[in-house]
Each structure stands twice: as structure tokens, then as C-alpha cells.
Write a structure and sequence with these properties.
The chain is an alpha/beta fold. It has ten helices and 14 strands. The protein has a domain at 7-187 and 232-261 and 301-313: Rossmann fold (3-Layer(aba) Sandwich), CATH 3.40.50. The strands form four sheets. Strands 3-2-1-4-5-6-11 form a seven-stranded parallel sheet, sandwiched between helices. The chain is globular, with a radius of gyration of 19 Å. Bound molecules: uridine-5'-diphosphate-4-deoxy-4-fluoro-alpha-D-galactose.
Length: 340
């Protein structure tokens, strides 16, 4: 590993991105404690060598107790709700779990003298960016409650870190994820969300005949084929960015905010074509009206993550993303054991 082993608290470590990261942290020699409510996470996804507490990351008393009992060097905060359309329908759920719980956690970290914090933010903070690719200094104008809850937590971190009066001031990296997809190359981990809404997951379910087909939400966007364009990033490359962010903070560098994406995008139609091609058979596709809260295009300017974190993506390929997701849908997703 590139730096000395750290003792790390991972909230949401039983979830999709959190579990891939927890495994990479263990493989790199770090000590990991996972906290997760198991609302959308799974016991089988937590690495065997990680400690685990089933608790809400926003539960002040419980989290302070866990922090007191462990001398954590850093927190990686994944826990949160992540579905844009659900946030439009149930905004209160998102404010409670993404804003209130994050605020509680950040305060507990401060009280406990935990100095390093990596936060799962989102490209949703940009809304409909005025120009593409979007860099970290672009206007922040989220167009859905999910994006606003992520932005509020970025601001919370920024204010608390700059007002920090403890002898171990908080430093943080907020990683703004673009569209995360794919599954572990070895096939032991992947996305297992019931009633999934994310495009690649939905397409793989359709390919495996777990659903009757896929709807395209909007074919009249101002894009070459009329469907929305997104910057899809493989979950293992995204997980690796968290380890790089820890190295960065561990080296004493200042708080910052960094885009996580490959810097190029694919339309909904291109994604569906790719999944069908890899699968070898077609599934029904229906053109529907636009979904609320969807920006037409989101593509990362990723210069900063290359320059600052020396992050080198390994799976920058829509084919690899779709192939690993499809493999997980076909094989891994049903065969995982339900206990640790
Ligand atoms: N889409 C369809 N049909 C589907 C599902 C999705 O056409 O069945 C379309 C959506 O309308 C959108 C695109 O595919 O245009 C991608 O949608 P996803 O639901 O897969 O992902 P989002 O772009 O809405 O959101 C995701 C994450 C957010 C993150 C955002 C950043 O869920 O956390 O990417 O780009 F903020």
C-alpha cells in the first residue's frame, strides 16, 4: 500500500459503493469498521475482516459510543439515499437521511477528534450545467431534492471545517460521483437494490428477464439521439478514488471537492444497445415521457482527480461496465449467501 494503515469508519459499508470500497480498504491493509442500517445494504457485502455495527450513521449517541471505543483516523461517509426520482416524490426522507444524519455524523466526528472525512457527494449538485464537461467550479444549481441534500452536506462540511476550533481540525474531500455502475471484476460484489431504478441495473434485469423491458424516459432532449447523456464510471474505479482521497488527506493536504467521472458520456440508447449486444438478445424498449428531475447531459471534467489524486482509472469502458453488471445480474446476484 502507498501509505501507513489507517483505522477507518465506513458508513454505508454494506451498500453498493461502500462495500466495494470497504473490500479495497481491507485489501490495502487498512482496519475497517462498517456501520449500516441494512436498509439497502447487505450483510454478505461486508468484508469478513471488517467490524460491523447495525446502526444509523446519524444516531448521535450510538455513533459517539462507537467512536469513543475506536480511535478512528478517518470516516468515509457513504450512507444515504440515492434515487433521484424517489427524492422528488419523498423529499423529507432525503432531508432526514442525507442532511440531518450527515450533520449529526459530522458533529460526532468533530467531538471525537476524527480529523479526516471523505464524503459521497454527487454530480447532481450541478443541475443542468451551462457547459459540458462540467468542472468543480461550475455553478451549483441542483434541480432535484437529492442534489440539494448533497450540496447542503458539502456546505456543512465546508463551514464546520473552516470554523473548526478543536485541536484536530476536520479536513475533508467531497467526491462528486457521476453515474456509478458495473460490478466487481471477480464477480463477488455488485448492485443488489430491490426495485432498482438506475439505467444499467434496469437494463441488465431486463436482459436477464427479471423485468419485461426498459422504458426510455424522454427522447426529445437536446442531445444527438434525443436521450439523456451520462458519464458512467465503473464502481471499482470509484472505490479506488476513495483510497486516493485518504492518501491525499493523510499527506496533510487541504480540504477539497473533486469530480469522479471518466470525462465522456453515453446516451440512454447507447447504453441499451451495449447491454443488448453483450447479452446477445434484445429486450423490449418503450419510449416514454421525460422523468422529473433529469438533466439532459452530465459529463465530468476530470482534470482535478487526475492532477490532485493521481487517480488512474482501470475500467474506462462502457463494455466492461455493462459486462460486469450483466455478469453480476446473471450469476452473483442470486448466489450470494445471506450471512457473514
Ligand atoms: N433512464 C431511463 N430508463 C430507466 C432508468 C433510467 O431512460 O429505466 C434514464 C434516466 O432518465 C436518465 C439516465 O437514464 O436520463 C440515467 O438515469 P439513472 O437513474 O441511472 O441515474 P441518474 O442520472 O438519475 O442519477 C445517478 C445517480 C445520482 C447521481 C447522478 C449523477 O443516481 O446519485 O447519477 O449523474 F447524482
Amino acid at each position: 500500500m502507498s501509505s501507513s494503515p489507517l483505522n477507518i469508519l465506513v458508513t454505508g459499508g454494506a451498500g453498493y459503493i461502500g462495500s466495494h470500497t470497504a473490500h479495497q480498504l481491507i485489501d490495502a491493509g487498512h482496519r475497517v469498521t462498517v456501520v449500516d442500517t441494512l436498509y439497502s445494504g447487505h450483510l454478505w457485502a461486508i468484508p469478513e475482516n471488517a467490524a460491523f455495527h447495525q446502526i444509523d450513521a446519524g444516531n448521535r449517541e450510538g455513533m459517539l459510543e462507537i467512536m469513543r471505543a475506536n480511535a478512528f483516523d478517518a470516516i468515509i461517509h457513504f450512507a444515504g439515499h440515492i434515487v433521484v426520482p424517489e427524492s422528488v416524490e419523498h423529499p423529507g426522507k432525503y432531508y432526514q437521511n442525507n442532511v440531518v444524519a450527515s450533520f449529526n455524523l459530522i458533529e460526532c466526528a468533530q467531538k471525537s477528534g476524527i480529523g479526516l472525512f471523505v464524503f459521497s457527494s454527487s454530480a447532481a449538485v450541478y443541475g443542468n450545467p451551462p457547459s459540458i464537461p462540467v468542472n468543480e467550479n461550475a455553478p451549483l444549481a441542483p434541480i432535484n431534492p437529492y442534489g440539494r441534500t448533497k450540496l447542503i452536506t458539502e456546505w456543512t462540511l465546508q463551514d464546520i471545517a473552516s470554523g473548526s476550533s478543536s485541536n484536530k481540525p476536520l479536513r475533508y474531500v467531497a467526491l462528486r460521483y457521476f453515474n456509478v455502475a458495473g460490478a466487481q471484476i471477480e464477480g463477488h460484489l455488485g448492485q443488489s437494490t430491490p426495485e432498482a431504478t438506475h439505467l444499467i441495473k434496469v437494463a441488465c434485469e431486463a436482459a436477464c428477464q427479471k423485468r419485461s423491458g426498459v422504458e426510455i424516459f424522454g427522447t426529445d432532449y437536446d442531445t444527438p439521439d434525443g436521450t439523456c447523456i451520462r458519464d458512467y464510471i465503473h464502481v471499482e474505479d470509484l472505490a479506488a478514488a476513495h483510497l486516493k482521497a485518504l492518501d491525499y488527506l493523510g499527506a496533510g493536504e487541504p480540504s477539497t471537492i473533486i469530480n469522479c467521472g471518466y470525462g465522456h458520456g453515453y446516451s440512454v440508447r447507447q447504453v441499451l444497445d451495449t447491454v443488448q449486444k453483450i447479452n446477445g438478445t434484445n429486450f423490449p424498449i418503450q419510449e416514454s415521457k421525460r422523468r422529473a428531475g433529469d438533466p439532459a447531459q452530465l459529463i465530468a471534467d476530470n482534470q482535478k482527480i487526475h492532477d490532485l489524486l493521481q487517480w488512474k482509472p482501470r475500467y474506462d469502458s462502457l463494455e466492461v461496465i455493462c459486462e460486469t453488471a450483466l455478469n453480476w445480474e446473471r450469476n452473483g446476484n442470486q448466489s450470494v449467501s445471506l450471512t457473514r
